[in-house]
Amino acid sequence: MKRYSKASDIKVGVIGYGGAFNMGKHHLDLMLKAGMTPVAVSEIDPARLEVAKKDIPGVQTYTSVTEMLKKSDVNLVTIITPHNTHAKLAVQCLKAGRHVVCEKPFAITTKECDDMISAAKKSGVMISTFHNRHWDGCAITAVKKLVKEKAIGDIVRIDIAFGGYGQPGDWWRSSKSISGGVMYDWGVHLLEYSLQIIDSPIEEVAGYAKVGYWAPKTKWKADTNEDEGYAVVRFTNGKWLTLRVTSLNAKPVDYWATVTGTEGTYCFDHGRWELTQVNSNGTSTITKGSNAPGEGEKFYENIADHLTKGTQLVITPEWARRPIHILDLADQSAKKNKALKAKYR
Ligand SMILES: NC(=O)c1ccc[n+]([C@@H]2O[C@H](COP(=O)([O-])OP(=O)(O)OC[C@H]3O[C@@H](n4cnc5c(N)ncnc54)[C@H](O)[C@@H]3O)[C@@H](O)[C@H]2O)c1
């Protein structure tokens, strides 16, 4: 793969400059901070292109990705569009010889991930996924306490969950065919945290889905996300993990995650952690604290270092495929009513 002599030689374009969280500006700011040069924005909504022009004076704007790839000299493209468009747009950019960063989730199906990885290999370019939350303070602190310091002995299980009680909105995130389902938006982050804590190949996945309670009340009807999704992942080293994403939790959970070990229990959410350690006399000691600050800007620093110095990519496409493979298997398993063996372990 060709190396750039300096980060500013990496000319970046984004596809999608959406209004929900102004993510296009967020990405371009982070890439600029990592030394890269923002050049272009492609967006099908002309009103959002106007916002991009105001946000980034002088930026090139395109209403078509094909046109951006033809006319601009961007060499890295970040895709910030709804989930069902990631794979198609990524393959288009990769085939045009551009490096690609895809917003999470990497894609919806394992097959889409495979297609993206093989297109990148064929063109000799990089593909990664914006797993900025790899560096969330809660993940950094949990890995330090549980993996490096072994604060709860051997890990037995992770129970991780997200959600509350409420009708899905009218936005695309509530459409099953566009979003992938209720588990894809936050589930992918929770799995990425968990896979940093349980270092083992995946054996099998059992998925469960409750559908239909909210559907009649939404604009998506039969295409509305599941009311709740649940997955049990069995790892080859005997550990397991449960993931639940729900819109039916009338009583919200206290912490997002409970990690159970042979010598204690560790709970965390975005800001806090609570550690219960069992003493030799049978009593237990509870300590609580705040998570380390997040370091999400490391994502693009690593991309710039990878493309200029050949530094190892942290979020490889194979790593990004693991949570998608789990979610894909969970979806199929829920439909088939049986656990499914993992292809990518
Ligand atoms: N990592 C994070 O913390 C984080 C936070 C928010 C969103 N996201 C992810 O970012 C992605 C986008 O989410 P969002 O909240 O910005 O959604 P959004 O709906 O606000 O924006 C999506 C934009 O993509 C545009 N678009 C769709 N198809 C296009 C195409 N073919 N070419 C050009 N533009 C196109 C739409 O017009 C829209 O403006 C999703 O994958 C989401 O999960 C990640």
What does this structure look like?
There is one protein chain. This protein is of the alpha/beta class and 345 residues long. The chain folds into two domains: 124 residues, NAD(P)-binding Rossmann-like Domain (Rossmann fold); 177 residues, Dihydrodipicolinate Reductase, domain 2 (2-Layer Sandwich), CATH 3.30.360. Helix content is 33%, strand content 25%. The chain is built from ten helices and 15 strands. The strands form two sheets. It has a nine-stranded mixed sheet. A six-stranded parallel sheet has the order 3-2-1-4-5-6, sandwiched between helices. Helix 4 packs parallel to helix 5, helix 6 runs parallel beside helix 8 and helix 8 crosses helix 10. The longest helix is centred in the last third of the chain and has 20 residues. The model has no long low-confidence stretch (mean pLDDT 97). It binds nicotinamide-adenine-dinucleotide. The site of nicotinamide-adenine-dinucleotide has 25 residues, from loops.
Largest sheet: 9 strands, mixed
Helix content: 25-40%
Q: Can you count the beta strands?
A: 15
Number of helices: 10
How many domains, in number, for the residues? Answer: 2
* Ligand inventory: nicotinamide-adenine-dinucleotide
Radius of gyration: 21 Å
Outline: globular
Name of the CATH homologous superfamily of the largest domain: Dihydrodipicolinate Reductase, domain 2
Spell out the blueprint of helices and strands:
Elements: E1 11-15, H1 23-33, E2 37-42, H2 46-55, E3 60-62, H3 65-71, E4 76-79, H4 86-95, E5 99-103, H5 110-123, E6 127-130, H6 137-148, E7 155-163, H7 176-179, H8 184-197, E8 202-210, E9 228-235, E10 240-246, E11 257-261, E12 264-268, E13 272-278, E14 284-290, H9 298-309, H10 317-336, E15 340-341
Parallel strand pairs: 1-2, 1-4, 2-3, 4-5, 5-6, 7-10
Antiparallel strand pairs: 7-11, 8-9, 8-15, 9-10, 11-12, 12-13, 13-14
This protein binds nicotinamide-adenine-dinucleotide.
Nicotinamide-adenine-dinucleotide binds at residues 15-21, 23, 42-45, 48, 65, 80-83, 85, 89, 103-104, 130, 132, 185.
